[in-house]
Amino acid sequence: MSAKLLRARPARVVPAVIVAILILALAVGLGWVGIAAILASNGAMDSALTGGVPGLDGIGSQQWGSPVIITIGIALALVGLILVIAAVSPGHKRLTGYRAETPDHIDRFEVALPTSALSNLAAAAADSVDGVSSVRAASNATSTNITFTTPVRDNAQIRNDVDSAVTERFASIAFDRTPTVKVHAQRRPA
Amino acid sequence: MASSQGSLTIADKVIEKTASQILKDMPGVGGTKSGLFGFGASSDLDTRPSVDVTLSGRSATLSVQLGLAYPTPITEATETIRRHLSSELEAHTGVTVRQVDVEVMWLKPNASGSSRGVRRLL
Amino acid sequence: MRRMAAGANRTGLIIIGLLCLLAGLAALAISFGLAESVIPGLSSDKDLKPVAEVVGLQFSALIAIVAAVILAVIAVRWLAAQVPRKDSAKPLRMQQDARTGITTVTANVIAAAVADDLEATPEVVDAQVILRGTARAPELMVHVDVDERADIDAVVADISNRVTRNCSQALGSRLSAVGLELGIARTHQRKQRSVQL
Q1: Mind telling me how many Å the CA of A138 is from chain C's nearest CA?
Q2: How close C49 comes to chain A (CA, Å)?
Q3: Hey, which residues does C145 pair with through a beta bridge?
Q4: Domains observed in chain C
Q5: For residue range B9-62, what is the model confidence (pLDDT) as tens digits?
Q6: What ipTM was assigned to the predicted interfaces of this complex?
Q7: Residue pair A145/A184 in contact by the 8 Å Cβ criterion
Q8: Which of C96, C103, C167 is facing B104, going by the closest CB pair?
């Protein structure tokens, strides 16, 4: 089985952009220090970095056990761990599979709904229930959480209606796995 | 012998116009009208396709930019166009058509060109 | 729909992450005196003179500049890779015999025709299409936004039976892959202001 046509997992764009910008900043800093050192020694190509930045050889007086070094070590290790986790963990699935028959003029047919579509479907279904004044819905690939507001004090019946409206809507769609539905009511006096 | 009867010269523009008209009369073939600075440009089955002719001796190579009705099979449609255009152009102007390069610029459903009615294939 | 540099991002992150992690752990190991058993004499009360000597070496400024340029190139290329790519097919060649002439269709022409066709599907509000692959093995990537009350199964059935069949017919070959992503458009977010009859 080759890779999926539709990208279900996050591409880790944000951490990649942050790290790339940090590398760029490091490059600019390093280049700056290098050029400063060469300029300080009137363009001698064999000049040392310390020539341009006087404080640089101060590193030598630090001890390995000093708090500064320990802090840097901990920070580096933590950042590294976070990046490794971001790279290895698959991340939230953003697509829910849909069961579609492959017609004979197509070799491979993949259909999916993003989680935002689940939320919108659920919100629309809940909106149609009498007594509901506003709806919010949040979804992942397997479940949807619906929060609706209503001016009605005794809202158990409305909650049931919303639950069955959304469940019915989902049941009418040929999902690979029908998402589960959770409903919360919030009373807001009219 | 030709000189005693006079000679006939056909400008490349004339061949382009003729080819363009032959294409326009085919069903399911259209072109793009260029508007002023790109504004008001329109593509439909009632517009003439644009044709570029390169003449060498008595033979011509054509490059055609046209639009087709969707979903006509593109390969078959353009082969038909190529054959039809070559034979018609040879009959009308006497030049031998060597090659017809076709660039399909757009594909549109046939229904929009309601004014066309059914056209007879020439 | 559009392709992201997911593989490159994850590979890049894991390399940088492991480098940071190892450097941090190594520094901590020395700081807490754990490295002494591996490298005798490297105890926590030693100073960082050996490290500082590196930046005092001859030519270290030049090496720093070279390293800076390399890092900058890597960073800029990585950033550039974040732009989502369409990866459309190259212009399709669709003639039977190249000697009598070439037929060219660009991927965008096909994609636009399919998108128009999709918008003829009832309850489809918006459609985006990318054609990938070749004329022999075309791949369609489709995103449609449908109305919130639409019959999803009917929309999928129309796309699989009519729209993709039209495309396959126009191209004169089977579609080797079709990826369809369905979004839901909330009605109150859109208002149709005219009707075309």
Answers
A1: 14
A2: 4
A3: C126, C183
A4: 6-80 (no CATH), 92-189 (3.30.300.30)
A5: 888 899 999 999 999 888 888 888 776 666 667 777 888 899 999 998 889 999
A6: 0.79
A7: yes
A8: C103
